[in-house]
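Subject: Inosine/uridine-preferring nucleoside hydrolase domain-containing protein

B.,
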Amino acid sequence: MDDALALVYLAGLHVAGEITLAGVSATAGNTTAHQAAANSAWILRLCGLGDIPVVAGLPAPEHVELTTTPDTHGPTGTGYLRAEVDPQRLPAGPEALTDLWGRVEADRLIVTGPATDAAFRLRSGARLPRTTLMGGTYDYPGNTTPFAEWNSWVDPHAAAELFDSGTAVTVCSLAVTERFTVDPDFLGELIAALGPVPVAKRLPEMLRWYFEFHRAVGEGYLAQIHDAVTCMIALGTVDFTATPARVHVDTEGEHRGRTTADREGNATSEGGTSASNALIVDDVDVAGARAELLRSATLLAGFLR
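Prediction pasted inline below.
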């Protein structure tokens, strides 16, 4: 559901000409890659952007068995709703992913799920554009194990490959993204801002599942919207602060998915200093992020009127 709001946010900027949303590849994680692609294509269609190319990426991580989360995101990843798009009608697999990358020109990559598809691109010998990743925990509790955040746990090897690749990665970890929440009152504001956009009517039943999940785990009747704020940070549309760091991802054992960082200039375990491979976001203007999401919704509404 947080991925859906990220797509709604990007759709508003796209129709206003502030960005070009070049394409979407769906990664297996919250649900299967095929279903995630159908969900993404459906959300974009409900935003009036059915022409954006969407593909299902790799069906599973390369080194570990796929785990999905129907308890968190609903049976098909969209809460109490089901996407009105047939997953089998969308391009899928390594060939589709390679074709998408070959057809679009992108100067930014925003990874809001496991890094499976990004790592596949790296293994093909290509370099990635400037990349922003939602994932990891740094001096902060995990949401999957005591040590690990979900995206980093689902495919830790892919996350490790990304950080070891030399790609410039901006990292939006749980410590930052969990602060951007939507409750029923703000959801009402968002729906009002979207006005005639068809996706507005679907959001209550989609997010109700997420509200109920967060209440069940003691967070309150709200939803943490990790991915929309990640997009804002990637695009520089919200104020944030960040620190260069050297990131390491554990790939095996009980600490699978744990992310640790040596902040720039700090001593490493070998006694030297770390060469940074990432920029870790430390803080974000949450009020500004909420206002930015409403601004984008208003842009999308104006486009469809």
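Residues 2-304 form a domain with the Inosine-uridine Nucleoside N-ribohydrolase; Chain A fold (CATH 3.90.245.10).

T.
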